[in-house]
Amino acid sequence: MKNFKTNLKTEQEMKKMSKTMKASSERLRATVNYLAGELGSRGYDEPGNTLARDYIREQFRAMGYEPVLQTYKAGGRMYDNVIAVYNPGRERKLIIGGHFDSVSGQPGADDNASAVAGVLESARLFQQNRPELPFTVEFVAFNLEEPPFFSSPGMGSHVHAASLNKDEVAGMINYEMIGYFTSEPGSQTVPPELAGTVPDTGDFIHVMGSVKHPEFADKVAEGMQEAGEVTVYHHNLPERGEFSRLSDHMNYWDHDIPAVMVGDTSFLRNPNYHTLKDLPETLDYESMAGVVSAVYHAVVHRL
């Protein structure tokens, strides 16, 4: 565990930060309500999957992006990732992504409509604030993270990672379940390897990086904590560990690309994980907004 302290450089920088538009809890709520409420299940074999793809594409387009589909074949059918690009044409790029499918038959509010909301709101912040960056930012909504494609070449993130030149990628930030927070003591399960390094109350966001690329993960976590929007805990773990390969970031690790997972720790905290109870009303949208604002700050001020 690392304790990060705010280290703002100048008064001018502080004033600039105060004028930066931050994430909207209401927009995050609206996205989750549509995906996990109105559409409901977005499994690989359900109409909601295609409707979610179309919604994400239209949201990007409404922000002023020109989204494209990355189409690929898995399990005998065609599927798509949705991609939007900020600040194109730079030599290097940063990926910010999250998967939009759910387990078939389940609403998937935290898993993973919350992350889609995070990706879309991140994209909006960049369009509205227009930060000057030395790299491109590529926003990607992945398909097929859930079974039966999990940990297979059919994952949308596997397809996307394989399409990249690793030397042109600064890193990848993966939103995975960013909406469940609770102040109840004992609500956070702590794996043995992390014992004593995180509290047993699930009111924080976790940044998980790789011991192979610690510098990228450290910068993301430090920047998020510096923003002062949410409590951040951070660990760099072995890439083949029991708890480290549980989402889309693993496919970037497998292509030697630095990546982090930003999340609420999934089943280690959220009792609704992969059940019909994973509903929009169970999420904390103010904390979600803090997470997205913190990620934006880390990208703009630390990377």
Structure description:
With 303 residues, this protein is an alpha/beta fold. It has a single domain (11-94, 106-264, 277-302), classed as Aminopeptidase (3-Layer(aba) Sandwich). Helix content is 35%, strand content 18%. It has 8 helices and 8 strands. Helix 4 packs across helix 8 and helix 6 crosses helix 8 (285-302). It is globular, with a radius of gyration of 18 Å.
Write the layout of secondary structure elements.
Elements: H1 11-19, H2 25-39, H3 47-62, E1 68-74, E2 77-86, E3 93-99, H4 109-129, E4 136-142, H5 156-162, E5 169-176, E6 205-210, H6 214-227, E7 232-237, H7 249-253, E8 259-263, H8 285-302
Parallel strand pairs: 3-4, 3-5, 5-8, 6-7
Antiparallel strand pairs: 1-2, 2-4, 6-8
Short description:
This protein is of the alpha/beta class. The chain is built from eight helices and eight strands; from the N terminus they run αααβββαβαββαβαβα. It has one domain: Zn peptidases (Aminopeptidase).
Mean pLDDT: 93
Strand-residue proportion? 15-25%
Sheet having the most strands: 8 strands, mixed
CATH superfamily: Zn peptidases
Total strand segments: 8
Helix count from the secondary structure assignment: 8
- Ranges with pLDDT <50 over ≥5 residues? 1-11
CATH class: Alpha Beta
CATH topology: Aminopeptidase
Under the CATH scheme, which architecture would be assigned? 3-Layer(aba) Sandwich
Q: Helix/strand-derived class?
A: alpha/beta
Residue share in helices? 25-40%
Sheet with the most strands: spatial strand order:
1-2-4-3-5-8-6-7
